[in-house]
Design a protein that fits this description.
Blueprint: H1 2-12, H2 15-21, E1 39-43, E2 54-59, E3 62-63, E4 69-73, H3 80-87, H4 89-96, E5 99-104, H5 128-144, E6 151-156, H6 158-169, E7 176-180, H7 191-200, H8 206-214, E8 225-231, H9 240-253, E9 261-265, E10 268-274, E11 280-287, E12 294-296, E13 312-314, H10 319-326, E14 340-341, H11 345-351, E15 360-364, H12 383-395
Parallel strand pairs: 4-5, 4-6, 6-7, 7-8, 8-11, 12-13
Antiparallel strand pairs: 1-2, 1-15, 2-5, 3-14, 9-10, 10-11
Helix pairs in contact: 1-7, 1-12, 8-9
Length: about 400
């Protein structure tokens, strides 16, 4: 395993050379069509942006007066808007009137578009990718009059591990988080350790896991409520990692070690841990026979959202909808309490900016249509190097 890590580390150090070979505009092209009728935009000119991330966000056509914000972090090989669209977050935002922030990794930072959740410089408060996401949140809160008490973060795989990092380094920002096929915060600090924990997991006492989070900030207040999701047939991230995430956050919430409630359903088990006030603080969904990805319930009808794709897996269970319920985002009826119509995007820009906004690239999205056929990816000049990395990952059992 250490040899594999050294090989990939050496390849990643060649990113500057690979970046020079990328065609112009590879990551700044047209934004994809989405399953919503709001405004998808890319925002430029973000403060210092030390993590060099791309900033996208989604404003539904109708929002609450002070809407919540959900930060959605994609997994490796994925694009931000594609993941939010496939996971059902676009549809949920439209239905319940909250906004989305969609940070996106750049190939210059990681050739496989993974967030660098295992790099201390990117997962420490005030630096790297974590600081870039914090800047994006502050920008969106100011631009769109977001309710600061209703900011949430979710992510899949590397995005799930980065969600762990955001919850640990900036806990005062978030009311809740959701970690799907992710890793505990502090479980790895370099590439070999990342491969090791993904394959085998790292086991620590709950108090030690909690101490790692406490040391990431000076937070003394209430901790975010956490939803943890894991498939039992995941061969990319060992399912035991979900147990360690639960240990980390139940210790922070000072719950008992054993769940207060266990729900057994066909295809999945849900466990719930209550805080000292008797309120659900941590929940865990274990989905039977599910591989590496975000569980979906596609199709029409109540509780059905998103579209299946690689790492977006049809299971008959919409994780995004359940997570939104756990965060109490679905309690506002879009019929009985209609969200304010934001109208024309140009009106939004003139009326909804408490502070001046820097230039943004905007792409209006079409109304929902039947799912298009999967788009074919254009050949990439990184093909040979990417193939080397992918073979290394497959040999470690970290990629199918």
């Amino acid at each position: 395993m250490a040899g594999l890590g050294s090989t990939v580390a050496r390849l990643l150090k060649q990113q500057a050379t690979w970046r020079d070979s990328l065609p112009d505009g590879l990551e700044n092209g047209k934004l994809p069509p989405i399953r919503g009728d709001g405004l998808l935009e890319e925002v430029a000119g973000l403060e210092s942006n030390p993590g060099n991330l791309r900033m996208l966000r989604y404003l539904p056509k109708k929002v609450r007066e002070a809407p919540p914000l959900v930060v959605v972090l994609h997994g490796c090989t994925q694009k931000a808007a594609d993941y939010a669209n496939g996971a059902g977050w676009i549809e949920l935002a439209d239905l319940f009137g909250f906004c989305l922030l969609l940070p996106e990794q750049r190939r210059a930072k990681n050739p496989n578009l993974c967030f660098n959740w295992f790099v201390p410089a990117d997962t420490t408060r005030g630096s790297g990718e974590a600081e870039s996401i914090r800047q994006m949140i502050d920008r969106t809160v100011a631009d769109w009059n977001i309710d600061r008490d209703q900011v949430f973060v979710t992510g899949l795989s590397a995005g799930g591990a980065m969600a762990s990092a955001m919850l640990a380094t900036y806990p005062e920002i978030f009311a809740g988080g959701a970690i799907i096929a992710g890793l505990p915060y502090g479980s790895a600090s370099d590439i070999p350790a990342a491969f090791q924990v993904m394959a085998d997991s790292r086991t620590l006492p709950a108090d030690e896991w909690a101490s790692i989070v406490r040391s990431a900030s000076h937070h003394q207040g209430r901790w975010p409520k956490i939803s943890v999701w894991q498939g039992t047939a995941d061969h990319t991230v060992n399912p035991r990692n979900a147990d360690e995430i639960v240990k980390q956050w139940t210790a922070l919430h000072k719950t008992g070690a054993k769940p207060d409630q266990i729900e057994k359903h066909p295809g999945y088990v849900r466990r719930i841990w209550n805080n000292i006030e008797g309120e659900p603080a941590v929940e865990e969904y274990v989905v039977s026979a599910m591989g590496h990805g975000t569980p979906l319930a596609t199709g029409s009808g109540e509780g059905h959202f998103g579209a299946a794709a690689p790492f977006l897996l049809e299971t008959g269970l919409s994780s995004s909808h359940r997570i939104a319920q756990f965060w109490d985002l679905t309690k506002v009826s879009p019929v009985l309490q209609p969200a304010r119509d934001v109208g024309d995007p140009e009106t939004v820009r003139s009326e909804q900016k408490p502070v001046p906004r820097l230039p943004a690239i905007t792409v209006p999205s079409p109304h929902r249509e039947p799912d298009p056929k999967p788009r074919q990816k254009a050949p990439s000049p990184l093909h040979d190097v990417g193939a080397i990395i992918n073979r290394a990952l497959r040999s470690a059992g970290l990629m199918k």
